[in-house]
Amino acid sequence: MKSHRDYLSNLLIVIIISSAFLDGVFGDTFEVLQQAVLLVVLLLSTILTVDIFFSRIQYLQLEFWVFLLSIIYAISAIYYGYGFKYSVYLIFCMSACILSSENNFSSNFLSIVKIIIIFFIALIFIVGLFGFWGTPKNTIGGNIIALGILLLIFSSYDKDNFVFIASYFFILVSMCLFIDFRGGTIQLVIVFLGILIGSKFEFKINPLIVFISSISIAFSIVFILSDLEYFFYISGLGDTVIEISHRGLSSGRELIWPLAIELIFEAPLIGHGAGFLIRDIFTEETWSSHNLFIQVWLQVGLIGLGVLSMILYKIMIALYKNENNHIYIVSLFYWISLIVYNSFEVSFFQNSMPIAILQWLIVGILLNKQSGKVITNE
């Protein structure tokens, strides 16, 4: 029997999906409306999180590190005078994760939500294709990917139906390429590989090994991509990339990251402030760091980066405990895809909040005891 918590949680999920639709279609055109939606999310999530909190005392490890990072951002915002919103955003994200991990999903609710998601994805894609409202491609593509992955895990797919899974991901990748959103296709490919591998093999990898390897890759990308840009340039392949997508391989990140690293070493321990962006110094630009780890290090220093690393590690440990091998492998690859994606973007709790909240919502569903039944009908 569904409780009041489940009904409110279902309502919250629909509102979160709707906020992704507003973000993907309108960008910042109706910023006040988006802020109103986020306030509703905050209100509902606060009520539900308090309701759930006392029943989860024994599971507070992940929550503890999220709250700690939120406090670090709050203290930094008070000291430097800006950036407090990121402290609140972290609570948004954690609430979405907690609520979706505790929700008892009904078949009727899933059917309705799937129709809503399909409709929203179609509209967002049309906006991206024709360039209405000037919504940034990263915002459009990021929402399509997050909603697309959420739709798949709500679909109770047959894990052995290769044709359906391959066709589904082909459609999503094609959408991203049509709107010239290249980075997100990497995330889709990683999740697709996870589903295929999970349908054929059974294994588990030590969470610490996965964590260290993934984080090492994330930091290595900063240096590897710059070298690749140089290789593409001298080989002539760079011109081909520009002809196809009208942008270079790294889209300016080879310029942003060296500047960011220089700034990091000016205040490596505590950072430059919770709301700091490179544009605060180079005022003619509108750059974020386009790398979650660099941005957090810039803002709240090595202390904040260490706490963020603990959050990611605790998520990996929680996903590792899933007894359903297929869901574990899908979760593992989704987690890796988030690390890789956030090596090029800052979507885990900054920039586009609807995308960030959706990512945490998906993590919560993967942690849900019902995950096997919801995702693969097992």
Order of helices and strands: HHHHHHHHHHHHHHH
Tally the helices. 15
The percentage helix is over 70%
Q: How would you name the oligomeric state of the polypeptide chains in this document?
A: single chain
Global Rg: 20 Å
Instruction: Indicate the proportion of strand residues.
Output: under 5%
Which segments are poorly predicted (pLDDT under 50) over 5 or more consecutive residues?
A: 230-242
Largest sheet: none
User: Overall 3D geometry?
Assistant: globular
SS-derived structural category: mainly alpha
N- and C-termini, Cα separation: 20 Å
Number-wise, the strands total 0
Mean pLDDT, nearest integer?
78
Describe the fold and architecture.
- The structure is a single chain.
- The chain is mainly α.
- It has a domain at 4-191 and 349-376.
- Helix content is 74%, strand content 0%.
- It has 15 helices and no strands.
- The chain has helices at 4-26, 31-53, 60-80, 84-102, 107-130, 137-153, 162-178, 183-200, 207-235, 237-245, 253-264, 292-320, 325-341, 353-367, 371-376.
- Helix 6 runs antiparallel to helix 7.
- The protein starts with a helix and ends with a helix.
- The model is unreliable at 230-242 (pLDDT under 50).
- It is a multi-pass membrane protein.
- Residues 169-307 form the O-antigen ligase-related domain.
- Pfam families: Wzy_C.
Keywords:
single chain, about 375 residues, mainly alpha, about 75% helix, globular
